[in-house]
Queue: 2 jobs
Job 1
Amino acid sequence: MLAFGGTSVRSKLILASILSSGTALLVVGAVITSRDLSQLRQALVRRMSVQAEIVGTNCLSALLFNDPRSAEATLGALRADPRVMSGVLYDSDGTVFATYARHPSIQAPALDAGFGDGGEEYRLNGNHLVLAKQVSFEGRKAGTVVVASDLSEIDDAILRNVFIVGSVLVISLTIALVIASWLQRDISQPIRHLAETARRISQDKDYSVRAVGERADEIGSLVTAFNEMLEEIRHQEAALRTAHDRLEQRVVQRTAQLQAANDELEAFSYSVSHDLRAPLRHISGFAEILKEDAEGLGEAGRRYLDKISQSATRMGQLIDDLLVFCRMGRSELQSASVDLSKLVEQVVEEAEPDAKRSIDWHVGDLPTVRGDEAMLRVVLVNLVSNAIKYTGKTPQPRIEIQAIEDGPAEVIVCVRDNGVGFEMEYASKLFGVFQRLHRSDEFEGTGIGLANVRRIVHRHEGRTWAEGDPGHGAAFYFSLPRDREALE
Amino acid sequence: MSELKRILIAEDSENDVELTLVALKEHRLANEVIIVRDGVEALDYLLRRDAFASHPSGNPAVVLLDLKMPRMDGIGVLRTMRSDPRLQTIPVVILTSSKEERDLVESYKLGVNAYVVKPVRFQQFVEAVQTLGLFWGVLNEPPPGSVRRSA
Amino acid sequence: MVAPRKAASLGRVLGLAVTAFAASAALHAAEDFSERLPEYKIKAAYLYYFATFVAWPEPPSSPDASAIVIGILGDDPFGDVLEDTVRDKKVGDRPIRIRRFESLKEARQSHILFVPASERDNLPGILSSLEGTSVLLVGESPGFASNGGHIGFVTEAKKVRFEISLEAVKRSGLKMSAQLIKVGKVVEGGL
């Protein structure tokens, strides 16, 4: 069946046709032949029976009068039938009485006991059919006639039948082959054409090609459906392409816009960094000089000048922070594996001198994460300096930096202090740009630190949040993706 | 060695000039200071052309160069200087408000000797200028060809 | 010709002599019987067969309604053999009776009449007398069939054969089976 599945449709159709007609013919031939055979055999038996009957009847007197010669003469009549090989007359004791043999070499068989008693009996003996018929006289057995006929007739008949059936088979199959070859085209050709078309389309990706051969039957509807599908595909493809092109266009546009915006921002921050600082410097400078040189300024005057200087300074800070914030957003994330423990160590080391007092540090084991080391440094610097700043008024400041492992994919780090804390009510403002929850005279700062932290952590696909308890301290959390390489 | 050497300052902002001079004056470093207002003037002076043709010869011990100047900016001056064999060796300190990486890279590529960002706070500004003045104008040994102030 | 009856009146001596003769003859005959018994057994059988191979007219031909009569004219050489042979046998559905006749007239009642060799001398008379009747004449004298009889037994080399005169059979009007004719030897014959 496998082999059959691999051949072409054309072959299949022809093969199916031939096989079915061939089988039918064979079956018919076999049936007819077997019927013929049985009929022949029956005819043979009948004939032999008749012969035996005639011979037997005509030999009765010979038997009775013990005249073997007469019986032989009668038996000799069997010569007329070329199929009879031998005829033997046995007397009532089963002894051979008279014989006839077509060829002298043919032996007359001894009579099997009881063979033929009670009328007629036949059996196959090699390739002979042997029939025995009882010769009766006045209801009693006078003798037995046994006629043997060869079956060559039947054999010939078989051969003849086989030959005829065979020839008929060959001829019919040839005709069937011709017809099938001719007719199958109607089916196989459109299928082949369809298959070829499909292959071509699939290869060239040309959906404008159509299959021919729309007609009323199932193949026709297949072709029609096929073409309709192609039409549909083409439409969709065209639509897709249009959409794709449009999208690409849009992307190009947006990219250009983005690029333009970026460039603008670049230019802006560049000019800002230069142009904005200069006037501030001048304000600060001349205010100082004025303070030095001006006479009769008075206490108040000097205080005012101080304020002018400080304001200028503060403005400078704000500008710097803003620029940093901008840069953080724009610059590329250099992704690498970052050893947080080491980073925290460095940050704490650098920050500690500025603290100007001793802090109780608790730094836990921190894992390796994936991210931009410079940016993560900014995050930690911000959080640590905040912690230091806001414990400025705390007598025994304690700062904890711990990792709370959470899940195989990310790490949560917590920076906790026991400083001044904040009210949870305003927690949502914490990470906003320039948002502060404390007055600048209480704690200095521009309010950009946490905004930077959030921006950076978000760029690392992490999250930021905080908890605070006024007077008792605050805890700042951020999550980072774990370093997958280190895991593997 | 501790003689005061000539300092060339290229700065377009009047205010900045004034503040710088005040700072220098405080430490008596302002005696030999030449002020030019943009890149072209700076080159004119260094090459002794046009308006400065009749100037006495001798290179300044250091050029304090602002970046943002009209006509020709600091980078342009620096490039020209470093490609001119006569001016190649003159120490250049860029003194600017810009902290842009771009400017830093470009400047050092061109072989600037120092890059100082002008602090906004006056106090720090003064300190910076004075440090520069003391180092470059007094301590550092300029390349041959610089003018020494004679008494 | 009818066989002469031996007169008992010739005296006892003659009677004794005759009896002795008869006894010896009988003995002889018995001896002959024992010798000839197989022969007569066969002939008896043949007679029976003859009866079966002939198509007999319907019963009215003989006063004895249905039985086929086999008659023996004169001296019976068969003894019991014939009776034994035909006992319980039939020809078709007709039983067989054996009768012994002394006179020709009565002998006409037979279907088959066996003429023993002892009647040799009377043959011509017997034959001409019964000519044309539907009595099958079977004899054992030589030339029986050639001289007007229907079937004559012939013994050759210990085998019993018979001769048939077709003319005689045809004249008698009897229908004889070809099978019988086949087995017998056809001779020309007749009166």
Note: The two ends of chain B are 13 Å apart (CA to CA).
Job 2
Amino acid sequence: MSKKPVQFTLNGDSKAVFVEDGQNLLDVLRRGVGDLSPKYGCGQGTCGACTVLIDGEPHLSCLTLAETVEGRSLNSTGGLAQGADLHPLQDAFMRHFAAQCGFCSSGMLMAAKALLDRNPNPSRDEVVEAISGNICRCTGYEPIIEAILDAAQSGAGRRSA
Amino acid sequence: MSIHKGRGFASINYPIGMNLGGDPSQALVHSNPDGKFAVALSSIDLGQGMKQVTRQIAAETLGVPVEDVYVDTADSDTGPHCMGSFASRGTHRVGNAVIQAAKEARSVMLEAAAEELEVNAADLETDGKGNIFVRGAPSRSISTGEACGAAQFKHGKTVSGRGIFLIPMSDVDPETGEMTPVSCYAHAALVVDIEVDDETGEVDVKQMNSAYEVGRALNPRMVEQQLVGGAWMGMSHALWETTEPYYPDRTHGPTDFNQYLMPGPGDIAPHDIAILERPAPDGPYGGKGPGEMCANPVLPAVANAVFNAVGVRIDELPITPEKVLRGIKANGGAQPQGQW
Amino acid sequence: MSVEFRKELFANERDDNLNEIGKGTQRQDALGHVTGRSPYFDDHLFEGLLQIRCVRSPHHHARIRSVDYSQAENMPGVVRIIRPEDVPNNFNTLLSLLNFGRDDEPLLSSKKVSYIGEPVLAIVAGTDRQARDAVAAVRVEWEVLPHVLDVEEALKPDAPVVNEVYPNNTFDYHDKYDHQKLRYGDVETAFSQADRIVEGRYQMSPIEQAPVETNGAIAAPETNDRFVCYTSTQALFFSLGTAAKLLNVSSNRLHFIGGTVGGGFGGKVDSLVEPMAILACMLTGKPCRFVWDRQEEMQVGAPRGGERWYLKDGVMNDGRIIARQFTGYFDSGAYTRLSSYAIIKGTAHLPGPYHIPNVKADVFCVYTNRTPATAMRGFGVTGVDFAIESQMDKIAHEVGMNPVEFRILNAYRDGDMKAHRREAKNCALIECVQVAAEKANWPIRDEFKQASSMVGGGGERAKIPHTVTDEDGKIGERRAGRAGAGQTRTIAPSTPAPAPAAYTPPPPSAPPAPAPQPAAGQPAYAHPAAAPAYQPAAPHAPPPVTPAVAPAPPPAPAAPAPASETSTPSARPVNRPGYSRFASNSGFRRR
């Protein structure tokens, strides 16, 4: 199987990897780059645990061909904090006890960030819509919704990506 | 062509821990020279908060602030045996093991402090902020760090402890079923309010009101996490999910989350919860385990609410729009039962 | 969403003045979760990691005639084929670690398959895709067999045998019965004296635990002739012990690391992925990863088993339930796993948190040709609680009683005797019912608001009634067509139980207000007349509640001479096929 070079930025850092024919982005991020924050939940694009941002838009990395991110700018939860400072979404998730097993949290935070970056003052319905592609089996969603609304209140959307 | 309101009720209890006993858990607690403690377990945190609840139990028992304790789990080389996290056993069994281990460690720490302060250990108290002081004479004190340092470098004592908790095994009588299943039970009661569309058969959960008795809410925020999340799962069991929609026929079994249905964030209902605490005599600080029983009352409460709303008794889960419509049709129309 | 604490209830039983207990302190793992740093099993990088996929049965039930992997093993990236004969000790049952039940399940099957998805071969390859391609190239010749999917059909004499270790399609209890019995009092006499009989049939179909993280394990050689296994298991030592037994390796050569799991809900106890990953690692010398994809997690991984319950209640017009009878069928699927134990747990739970003086139950663990069942949140209890609480609502409706008041009337209280012959303690059902009703503005009358778990229990309610027992349903009888369900040969009681008299509720402070009329015109129920309390004849003395010390039970079928009564437990041979693990120090529990 031939390997193809792919270059992109991840959380502001420049990355270069060789990807297999047909290899998906989730696999490349986790095993190629070593960013373990996006998670494998289904491999079918129905759980959202693998969500990353590509040029600010949420994408399911398990269904994204790795070679298609050539030259793009990616974000993952692993790079959400700025240095030692948590992103307001992360802080809000903690204060609202919005994570139990934590496995959906990476994907949830990406979906939430994408929402607040384009809509800093969402309604509850808009938050619900934004996270409807992310399955959580533990929390019942309510604390996650409240955390995102709270983060919006504290100006999370106006923070530079 | 109408929306019918209905409400349903259910009440339950739930056995805490693996039935029939013989399911032990162990814990090891030890301090570094600064009086910072590690709790070594091989117990599993599935998200229910095992690490944090055992951390708080250890801190309480040791008499130190929670920031001075970390829980390390799970490694079979360093953590002593634990049966596992299931059957709502974790808080109860592991928590009790942690208490026993922490008590032993605490007694060594107090003995060391007693020697440094030249008093009897029985005259000492901890303030939960990192100090050990003489009862009645609080100015005569020493920090937990100093006591632990003295123990290890001066007195040659390990500030550590071991714990195990085991519910004794029980036999089962083959003729009568007599047995000793567990030692304590949690309780719950729940009212669910729904709306049923008699044209589509869809059931919309509008509100849940509940009371859960958990022995002791060791960490109230984490108990809330379990109750909210568990009630959501109960709702999901009642109205959405199954791997065999035509059980016992296996056809149309879902293979992904498009087909395995669960309520999403747009389907959830407000839930107002009351927490009651009747401590289990043998629970860690009276704690029972809320992790499983939180879902159980929702299933029958929803079925009862559907009957109340449209007069259709659905005895096979999950309750689907198809089943509701077939029931309404068989009855010749929706038959609301009225409310008390 | 709101949460309130009703601290005033049971306040005198608690010290609320604690330091760290009772505080909503931030979770130790919260920071890891929101930064993506929490280390789940799969968050470990290995050079040269191999992937494992299985060849699985497409049939409910089939004999395996041949398995041809000759093409597969030569495909690109394929490192190793794992066959049933490569598993050192290819026969187990999960609860063998506790000496409960017989080994009945291979890790990889070689003779027949009993459910769709059962694995017959494993392939280890460089990438997941290479492993899948190789799996697709394996040719299996199947001889399809008749199958059975319904629990009651499976008990019929002509049903196909699902699990050859249990040829009656039921788990054997106590080496005597094909079900677990619960017998307390005399339901038949009580039914004849009841004002009305209410019956119901309830069913719950299988449920997938569906944690967002699927089952998986990575095994790798350690530096010291041991194997490290990173695992999603819910039970570290359970999985370690199961792996040690299946692979015939000393337990201290296995180093299991886990503890941070992306949801479990009971679906990560079966310990199927760890032995496979470790075996692949042993055979290849490389780190090996075995992770279920979502389709496997959903249809191959064990779900909560389906359940079917028949309830029959004898009810008085004043709302008291005086007799309750259950027949319960747990659908274990093709293998036992944990279901044998669910039956016991479910039996102990009956008849629910209510004081019912006559209870009878027959609870079955049935084998069918479907995915084996396992634990799930509420294991052994969730399904029967659905049945019980739906039935309670039915009864309340029939007698025209407020369903909430109906629960309080029948609720158990401190000191009551329960059907498994232990005293009820630390009860709080009534208080939960009262508080939930209050929150929901569900009106109940004053005397029900004043009821308490701590008042009105015990006394006559603590006495174990004269009990009718039977020896129906011995192992094999049902399949032979003898003593089918419903035909009981009862041992006549020496003195018949007297008619149950009406329950005396605690005296109300004021005469009860007339019952409110619901909109649909339901009849109001009458307040129960005061009468002497129930007097059972010849009560048994309550059993002493002592920790059980296991006596020497009969040995396993495969064993030679029975264990001597006088030999010490640790000196007795472990009479169980395969590798001996975790022999309980207090001897055998039950076979």
Note: The first helix of chain C runs from residue 30 to 35.
